[in-house]
Design goal:
Radius of gyration: 17 Å
Strand content: 15-25%
Largest sheet: 3 strands, antiparallel
Strand order of the largest sheet: 1-5-6
CATH superfamily: Creatinase/methionine aminopeptidase superfamily
CATH topology: Creatine Amidinohydrolase
CATH class: Alpha Beta
CATH architecture: Alpha-Beta Complex
């Protein structure tokens, strides 16, 4: 297993392709089940079953005591929402975050989902911006650039539409370690920070809020919410850096990377 703060060979990328594909296929699979009335616990059961049936092990299950196979965060929950008997309602927006382990490789990804057909205009705007912010960050993740370039692009994309990026949580190195260095901040200064080098594998995962950027952790010690209870949205891809560009390991094979998924 690779040690922390290590880079990988291009041959190693094959392992991430398998893990990333299963992660993306799992989120594709769950789409028809995200409907008003379903519980987040039922969705978690289906996600775990699909991952295991296809050769994956849910990385979150038992991770530092975390009790479920996924994180499902609705509306004002920023991240780490614990699946439960909570039912979803028409008009909710949710983030589903999963990480199947396949042959020792961690395919970490998350996507936003619309619940029902009564999604507010402001929620749609926020979700659209969160996706654009992630892709703006990924576009800057080139060898020779810096992690400050990624954070700057993310934050500028969010703020130009009046949104804020969460500063308390960020992307991270991944590969044969679930959460590795470096941290991939969702804000930064151009040309500052660690240089991006070929062989690096990490996530880009901006959390974008409709209101302020401050967060709170609930009494369960996991669930993170916006302090002002404003809506939050997040997308996440795992990517690898090559000499000539970027490989996104967690793209949907069906092109279903952004809602509504029709």
């Amino acid at each position: 297993m690779k040690q922390k703060n290590s880079t990988y060979s291009l041959e190693d990328f094959a392992g991430m392709r398998k893990a990333g594909r299963l992660a993306a296929e799992t989120l594709d699979y769950i789409i028809p089940f995200v409907v008003p009335g379903v519980t987040t616990g039922k969705l978690d059961e289906k996600l775990e079953e699909f991952m295991r049936d296809n050769g994956g092990i849910p990385a979150t299950l038992g991770y530092h005591g975390y009790p479920k196979a996924s994180c499902i965060s609705a509306n004002h929950i920023v991240c780490h929402g614990i699946p439960s008997d909570k039912r979803l309602y028409n008009g909710d927006i949710i983030n589903i975050d999963i990480t199947p382990i396949v042959d020792g490789w961690y395919g970490d990804t998350s996507r936003m989902f619309f619940v029902g057909d009564r999604i507010s205009v402001k929620a749609k705007r926020l979700v659209s911006n969160a996706y654009a912010s992630m892709m703006a960050g990924i576009e800057q993740a080139k060898a020779g650039n810096t992690f400050g370039d990624i954070g700057y692009a993310i934050n500028q994309t969010a703020e130009k539409e009046g949104f804020t990026t969460v500063k308390d949580y960020c992307g991270h190195g991944v590969g044969q370690v679930f959460h590795d260095t470096p941290n991939v901040l969702n804000y930064g200064t151009k040309h500052k920070g660690l240089e991006i080098k070929p062989g690096m594998i990490f996530t880009v995962e901006p959390m974008v809020n409709f209101g302020g950027d401050e967060t709170l952790v609930l009494k369960d010690d996991w669930t993170v919410v916006t302090k002002d209870r404003s809506l939050s949205a997040q997308f996440e891809h795992s990517i690898g850096i090559t000499e000539t560009g970027i490989e996104i390991f967690t793209l949907s094979p069906k092109g279903l990377d952004f809602p509504p998924y029709k």
